[in-house]
Structure formats: structure tokens, C-alpha cells
Request: fold
Amino acid sequence: MTEPKPRDLAALLLTLTVVTGVVDAVSFLGLGRVFVANMTGNVVFLGFAAAGESTLSVLASLTAVLAFLAGALAGGRLARREDDYDALRQATAVQAALIAVAVGLSATLGNGTRLGSELLIVVLGVAMGLQNAAVRRIGAPDLTTTVLTMTLTGFAADSKAAGGAGSHPVRKVAAVGAMLVGAFAGGLLQLHVAMWTALALALALVLGVLAVLQVGRGRNKPATGSDSA
Reply:
């Protein structure tokens, strides 16, 4: 598969960054103060919960970490069998299916029971692990779609004010903005409408990314028969 143009790829990864913001807003605000994409937060939460912080759940954080690892494992195996962008396309297809399941679960079981919340954490954690593994294979600078710590570090440390070249400042700012927009939209829907609507937004964004990847794959298929002569 021919690689997408840099701008096209950046747009896709920024869209997935918005998805991360939406999904983490749902998990933190609706599933018991846990992240399904930001594993740094969960590790810290595990420490806090183990120390006796009663508003945090060791079970929820541990479930999220294990589910994320399972998704990353599956995504890693997929990435090693395929072209980088085919791997992203296939991982995004599975991620879309998982988020669709989460929409259904949230609309039926909801998060009113511990079982419902744990199921949603597992499904969403696997989905975000897949996304991260596929994006990691591509290795686009400052567009990890999940972790902003290094992006912000690079924005400051690589800036001309710090004596650096100031490379890709717009991309770094866009990544932070995408996460913020996703968190705002997800938080708004989670707090004032319903969980399933926030997850439906995440699903729509992932399906949009998948559609672009699928169209690009179709256009870049090698010619056959007389066309390839």
C-alpha cells in the first residue's frame, strides 16, 4: 500500500487523538475515575488506591491496564504481519467494532452496575491498546494519539527560545488541541446527555478514519491484467 501523504496521515492521527480524549472522558467521568487510554494515569491511580484513596478502584485501574495490554499485544502481532498502513486500517476496523459494542453495552447495561462498568473498561481498553500499537508502528513524530507529555516537552525543549530548531510546532499544538477538544466533547456528552452518545461520537470518528484508510487502499491497489503490462 502506498503511504498516505504526510498531511493526510497527520489528519487521521489527530482524529484518533480526539477519539482518545472522548473515550478517556467517558471512562474517567462515567466508569469510576479510570482511564482506558492513558496508562500513566492508571499506574498512578493504582498507587493512590493501594495507599488507601477510597474514591479510586484498584480493580478498575488494573482491569484497564490488563485490557490495554491485551489490545496492544493483538495490535503488535497484527503490525508485524502487515504493511504499516494496512495494519492501521485493520486495527482501526477492529477498534470500530469494539467501540460499537461499547455503545451497545452503555445503551443497555449502562454503567449502573460494577459488571457493566468492568465490561466497558475491558472493551474500551482493548480498543485503545489496538490503536496505540498500530500508531506506534507508524512512528509519526509528536502524534502518538495518546501521550502528550513528550509532545509538550518537545514543544518547549525544541523551540527556538530554548535554542532548538522549533520543528513541527503547529503539529504539537494541534495534538494538544485535539486531545482537549475530544475531552471537552466527551465530557459534555457524558455529563449532560448520556454515555452512549459520547461513545457514538467516538465511533463516528473512528469510522471516518477507517473510511479514509479504506479508500486510500482501494486507490493504491496494483493494476492487474493488461493494465499491469
In short: DSSP finds eight helices and no strands in the chain. Residues 222-229 have pLDDT under 50 and may be disordered.
